[in-house]
Amino acid sequence: xxxxxxxxxxxxxxxxxxxLTEHLRNRTDVQNIDMMNLTGFCRNCxxxxxxxxxxxxxxxxxxxxARAEIYGMPYDEWREKHQTPANQAQLDAFSAQKPDHK
Length: 102
Known about the structure:
By secondary structure, the chain is mostly helical. The chain has six helices and no strands. The protein is 69% helix and 0% strand.
């Protein structure tokens, strides 16, 4: 593997994260429950991790602010525009995996 500095690694990780969040903002057809069922994380998880990192660095970011960073808009607005009701199969799959989710 090519050697990289810690600064380069941080820059690459940040670029990958920005690309992931942009991808998720464009893929509004992908519902959070489907992401949870397939991958064990969703946009809300990313926003929680973002908030935790900010708070650990002394930046008192609220849950709503963190979600807006990930969703690209206020969470309630995103839900109104893009979230669809979960069907029974999605809910059953989520319930089966929920104990593994922290």
